[in-house]
Structures are given as structure tokens and as C-alpha cells.
Amino acid sequence: MEMDERKIKILQAIINDYINTAEPVGSRTIAKKYNLGVSSATIRNEMADLEEMGYLEHLHTSSGRKPSDKGYRLYVDKLMQVPTLSLEEELLIKSQILNAALYEIDKVIKQATQLLSELTKLTCIVKAPSAKKSFIKSIQLINVDSTSILAVIITDTNLIKNTIIRVRKPVSTDILLKLNNLLNAKLKNLTIEQINLSVINSIKNDLINHEEIFDAIIPALYDSLNSAETSEVYLEGTTNIFNYPEYNDIEKAREFLYLLNNKENLQRLLNTNNSISISIGEENYLEGAKDCSVVSGVYSLGGRPLGAIGVIGPTRIPYSKIVSLLTKIMKEINDTLNQTYLENK
After folding, report:
1. Which residue, 72, 60, 82, 62, is CA-closest to 11?
2. Which CATH number is 132-226's, of 3.30.390.60, 3.40.50.2000, 3.40.470.10, 3.30.300.330?
3. Nearest-10 crossing angle of helices 40-52, 5-21
4. Which fold has domain 87-129+231-344?
5. For residue range 241-290, what is the model confidence (pLDDT) as tens digits?
6. Per CATH, domain 5-79 is 1.10.260.40
């Protein structure tokens, strides 16, 4: 059975209608609402063919049909037209992300997630930058009192990590200055993951006659860096799903909220490639996500992927609008991060 132009137009009309109404679509609705130039009986026959081909599903409780995962996949890959954003939407995205850029990178990402959730009326997931994959920009050791030293570690993504290191006896300002200079010379532009025992030993070799200070400070600093958390996952707009009639079913709503609660699993749904990706229904192999679609993309700094941001909802989400909004938001995040990165280099 061939997928001719008439079938494509009918499938497109059914998907558009179902995305907007969440109501199973009948042939009479399509004949009335969409000027396809064919009778209701012809549409009914074509719909039966589309169901046989796997692009539509018949709901037993209704005479209408709804798109299948396969139908949505064809729509997303071949039929969807991504709309241009309104000038107001463009300006809102630009101004909100630029305003957040005055702060650390995670504030920019949180602001973008909040904005995407408001504009799409869906739940947003974001994978924040991992401290372990960030490059060290500077390390500062500061005397707090006779037995405490504050280590302030700043990464190239403006993540700041503070650690208090306990020492048995006071460390002079001169020694601390020497240690500061040495640490910055040895560790700057390394990622936290790259700071291994051979790097630590090379610092030790440069601290001959100061073994006591080395033993007091460096192991504690090393442990602190190694315990840096892997990427955090933030959620925004978790209750937005209740605007969708699909989740009036308590069991479905409970499953969805349970999925959102497992952040480790959730980040596996996000795309890790550079382009925007869409995964539909059964393509999401996680339990609880098989009735959902996820649209996500990666944000980067100097060409290095830092994290991901995405939208999750029922399979009838307005794909074209979401792709349009996410594309613009990703561009603004990347432009903002890279501008800040260039200024700080």
C-alpha cells in the first residue's frame, strides 16, 4: 500500500486536529474542518488504510482515530513545518537569557528552563553543567583562622566550589601565597577529572621542605574535587501536565510524576548530540515514558557540550512550536555562554 499525497494530507490533518483537541478524529470532522476536496466516505477509506499501515490507532471507546507513534514520527521527520516565532517571543527569550547572564552559568540555564516551561506550558528538564567536566579557572586558598583554610575553586563555567580545610597549625601568608601560585600554575585549564595522582605528585615535588603543608592541604583539596557532583537535573513546570486531559487518569498522572521523581533516569531521556532531537512514545525505553514525547537539545561552551535541556509531555505535544522555541532558546544560551567565555578568556 502506497503513501500517496492524499493520505499524507489526511494524516497531517488528523495529527493537527488531535494535537489541538486530544479528541479522537473522525472522517466527518476532517471533511468539515479541512478543505481537502474529497468526501467523508473517501476520507474514511483512507483512514482505514492509514490504520492498516500503522500510522493511526483506533480507540475502542470511539469511532475516531488518533495518531500512532509511527504517525507522529512521519509527521516530525517529513511533514512538520516549524513556525517563525513572533517578535514578542524572540525579544522575551533574548532579554530574559541576557539578564540571567550577569550571574553564574547555572542561573542562565535555570532561567532558560523556566522560560521554556512557561512558553510551551509543559514540563522542562535540564541537565546542568557537570563540575567534574569543567575546567579549573582559578584556585584561591585563604586563611580563615589558625586551624582553617578556605579553598575557593572557580571553573570556566563560573561554577564556584568552596571547601574548608582543617590544618593542625597555622600556615603563614607567604607559604599560602606560594601554594596558591603553584596550584594555579599546575591545575589551571585542567578538568577536575584530569587531576589524578601523577598531577598531585608533581605538585609534591615542587613543595620539597613543605611536606607537612602538602599533607595537610592537598589530599583534602583532591578529595573535595573528586567528590564534586556529577550533573544535577532540574525540573520546571511539573504540574503543567495536569492541563492535558490525558492525565485526568490518576494512574497515568501517578506514573508520569513517578518518572519525574527519578532524576537519574530522567537525564537519560535527554539528547546528547548537538542537534535538537525528538523521541516519541515507545522510542523512550524507560518505564513511564512510553506514552510521552521528549524534545531536547545540547548547550555548549567553546564547542564543548555542557548539558542538555528538553521538554516532556504526552505524544500529542505541539512539536513544531516546541522545536521553534527550543531552537531559539538554545541559540541564545549558546551565544550568551560563548560571549561570556570569550570575555573571560
Report:
1. 72
2. 3.30.390.60
3. 90
4. Beta-Lactamase (3.30.450)
5. 888 998 888 888 888 999 998 887 888 888 777 689 999 999 998 878 98
6. no
